[in-house]
Amino acid sequence: xxxxxxxxxxxxxxxxxxxxxxxxFLLFPAFIHPMSPSMTAAQVxxxxxxxxxxxxxxxxxxxxxxxxxxxxxxxxxxxxxVRRMAHRTPILSYCLLGCTAGGPTVFxxxxxxxxxxxxxxxxxxxxxxxxxxxxxxTFTAVVPFLIGQSLVIALAIYLDRPDRPVFRRxxxxxxxxxxxxxxxxxxxxxxxxxxxxxxxxLPFWVKNxxxxxxxxxxxxxxxxxxxxxxxxxxxxxVAEEAAV
Amino acid sequence: xxxVAQAGPQPGAAGQPPGEGTGKSHRAIPGQPDIWVLVLFExxxxxxxxxxxxxxxxxHSELFLRSQAELSPWLGTLDTLxxxxxxxxxxxxxxxxxxxxxxxxxxxxxxxxxxxxxxxxSKITEWALLAHDGYGFTxxxxxxYYFFLTGIHFLHLLIGFITIGVIIYQLRRRERRSQELVETxxxxxxxxxxxxxxxxxxxxxxx
Amino acid sequence: xxxxxxxxxxPPGAPAGSRLSRTAWHWRNNPKRELWFAWYTTVVFxxxxxxxxxPVTHAxxxxxxWWSDAQVAYWFNHNHDGLIIGFAIIFAVAAMTAPQNALIAxxxxxxxxxxxxxxxxxxxxxxxxxxxxxLLCVVLSVGAMRPGRDPAQLHxxxxxxxxxxxxxxxxxxxxxxxxxxxILLDKNRVMPKxxxxxxxxxxxxxxxxxxxxxxxxxxxxxxxxxxxxxxxxVFGIYTGAFITLLRTMILRxxxxxxxxxxxxxxxxxxxxxxxxxxx
Lengths: 244, 207, 279
Prior knowledge:
Strand content of chain B: under 5%
Number of helices of chain B: 6
Strand content of chain C: under 5%
Largest sheet of chain B: none
Number of domains of chain C: 1
Number of strands of chain B: 0
CATH class of chain B: Mainly Alpha
Largest interface: A-C, 46 and 52 residues
Radius of gyration of chain B: 19 Å
Helix content of chain B: over 70%
Mean pLDDT of chain B: 85
Oligomer: heterotrimer
Number of helices of chain C: 11
Number of strands of chain C: 0
Distance between the termini of chain C: 22 Å
Order of helices and strands of chain B: HHHHHH
């Protein structure tokens, strides 16, 4: 009987986390109809002062603050999968490890800025606008670690042995597509309206849908791997015991 | 790139075990050759600091002269004597170690440490006295340099205590002692001493 | 590539031919390709970093801390396009710092010291990009994006950006000391000892920069002669040194556990025997 090592528990926190994240996402009033960067300071200040919005902003951001790093265990399980691949050195798993540290940290900083903006809505509108800008810019544009994550996973899969790969090749292709989908968001500072603004098609919708899809697809692929590997391990153990 | 024939802290394998046979190192340079990279680099960096100091001094010579008068030449001289004496004992330590007289070597290096500690105490006293008189890091341009240079030297001296620790550790080992490492640490200590002499000359003497 | 110049661990049979075909062959077959990927990424990143931070955004050398609100506002407006485009590029490529940290962590893994050194370094430096570089990028982008912003606010953003960039000291201070300690204790001769000592010099620059949090003018402020110019010279030498040394390390790598062979010996070994096959 395999000793309980907790991996499955960590893995199955994912759907719980997804539920919490989606709820917080829907709760935050500035996500469903994403706030436009071309709103004036007065409009932004009103948005934060609106009592219908204020609680929702605070509670959704508190939720995100609690659970923002919740994806780390899944990311670590991915690192362990990369470690299993037929590479000559562990350097790619180190790369992935490095990238995973950045993503949640950046998200947390954006979260802090939103909470700050909402903390004293009676502040001068210019100040609220500034905190709001800082939050949106951080959230939208600081995508490098997510891009890096996907590209490192793709590279790791491409360099893995082709006959018994840890992940199938389409996972690598998928990761490259996701990375490409995230790149436009980096350039969101260039536009205050239109498809490149932080509420626009590319930096908001494409980016967040890509991230959502990545989480779902990678979770499924990861889960399949974990179960398959555990089955193989127990088969092997049974065979060894029979041979003795 | 690794032109170093020795592998650094691989005691015994690299240099001669101290106190055996020849009793004198066959190497032309004392200690690891690598330490001299550090010495040279630090010397360059400090030269840059001193150059900046001198340039600014010539631009504000009156302010600097006035501020320098607040420093105590006695404490400065005491500090210099402490440092020079500590270097002397460090030298005696290295010689004793080469000759195999390890207990004497340990004694000498402990005296070095004591003198170093006295230096630290003297420095802190001097800083406290200056602070009491109202002169701090941000008081004026001269004192910015003063506290910066003496501060960064203080830090180097603290690192020097770590090297003394390494020396004592090496001297107390029976097997696999590394004379090279002892000499390397000694070189560092002498460098710190030299830096102090230069700082002393610049800050206290040059008027 | 002829046999005499191939590295240990390279399978025999590397083709001669055009540079492109040789590169493609190595990408498919060279067991060190992951290491070379990390190394080339490092080199490319530093080039991008230099181009973006110096000529494009003019964020380095930093402008003066003692400027008035009006001067700061002028700087933002004057550099508007450079700031936004330059930092957008950084937002896209900043993950290139990860392979560099991974390669350095790997160098410590190859040493005879505990794995804890490599992991410590990896974690510390993985954190470093956020407060030490990305915050500046975000804050200056936000400052630039609305030209009509109140100059006093712009000044606050300006201070935030440059102080966070220059003043994030602990990671580089302690991270350098971790690497230094690993190198000095190492018996596998992965890095030369003099580079270990150079790490100490780099760590000390983080001490020297601390007064930037105190001074608004003079040689110790965030763009001062000592805190910036001399420090950056030291950092530049240090970076050039480790990029070169990492390259040499990769060339010498034999995927074993013992001391790394020197490059010269490799040539002799290559001439007499086939290279060891990868495990």
